[in-house]
Design a protein that fits this description.
This protein has helices spanning 3-28, 35-60, 76-102, 114-137, 139-148, 150-164, 175-189, 193-208, 233-258, 266-271, and strands at 104-108, 220-224. The protein is mostly helical. The protein has one domain (3-271). A two-stranded antiparallel sheet has the order 1-2. The two termini are 19 Å apart.
């Protein structure tokens, strides 16, 4: 590992460490209000804090948001919308497979609160996803990509994205796998709009089906069905996560085959 790479690792570690201190402080402050609004407030302040941290690190390097492609451009809404459709479709397909093979059933929520289930959930989940995309797929991903190439940058940010969700091996096949897809989407699209859309679409579908009730009410609930499925939903979920992991690794390698220079460091690219 060269000097530039060591410096990059230290800076990214310091960036993540600073954010975790900020997040710990925010979550330690008692918020005397509704849990959903408290989550929105923490997410909003966390997002602002993440932006300030990125700006501080960039300023120390005489760079700007544009240098790491953390900017709004005319294509951002289109990429976000595309990502949202992809996220909704992926999670919808996974839920269909799990429900069909496990014998579960889907029931409508009695007297659903549409404003809460749709509007509030979209707002809260957007803010939280934006915070996480800035923290993992902006400054850290770009700097690691420049120093180590596409593989190391994606797998490293994915690992810490999993740890951010809790020190649990199961998170490696949950958030960790999604982190691979988010990271590749960010590198391939040169920005966070596409992975942000995918991220929001996934979380929103989970919320609509009662899998994120800590943020909003649901429109549907997955319940035991009249018959017993041949496979438990937990096993089906793990299999789907492994399929996503393999798919993510294959997509990374296909990207490298199409862009062989992405597997090298930025110094090697300039030297070539």
């Amino acid at each position: 590992m060269g000097k530039t790479q060591r410096t990059t690792v230290l800076k990214v570690a310091l960036f993540w460490g600073s954010f975790w201190v900020l997040l710990f402080a925010l979550r330690s402050v008692p918020v005397p209000m509704f849990p959903t609004f408290g989550t929105l407030l923490v997410g909003s302040v966390g997002t602002l804090g993440a932006v300030i941290l990125v700006r501080a690190f960039l300023k120390s390097e005489s760079d700007t948001f544009a240098d790491i492609r953390l900017v709004w451009d005319s294509g951002s809404p289109r990429r976000f919308l595309l990502g949202s459709v992809v996220g909704v479709a992926l999670m919808g397909l996974m839920l269909v497979v799990i429900v069909t093979l496990s014998g579960l059933a889907v029931e409508s929520t009695p007297d659903p609160n549409y404003w809460n289930a749709i509007g509030v959930s979209m707002l809260v989940l957007f803010v939280l996803a934006l915070m996480e995309e800035i923290v993992f797929r902006s400054y850290p991903l770009v700097r690691l990509f420049d120093a180590f190439g596409v593989r190391s940058s994606i797998y490293c940010t994915s690992l810490f994205f999993a740890l951010y969700h809790g020190v649990d091996p199961a998170n490696l096949l949950g958030p960790g796998v999604w982190g691979i897809l988010f990271g590749l989407a960010a590198i391939a699209s040169r920005g966070i709009a596409l992975p942000l859309g995918i991220h929001c679409g996934l979380n929103w579908m989970q919320s609509l089906f009662g899998m994120k009730t800590q943020f909003a009410t649901s429109l549907w609930t997955i319940v035991p069905g009249p018959g017993e499925g041949s496979v438990s939903p937990e096993v089906i979920g793990r299999v789907l996560q492994v399929v996503l992991l393999v798919s993510g690794v294959v997509l990374v390698e296909l990207y490298i085959r199409k862009h062989p220079e992405s597997a090298t460091t930025v110094d090697d690219r300039f030297a070539a």
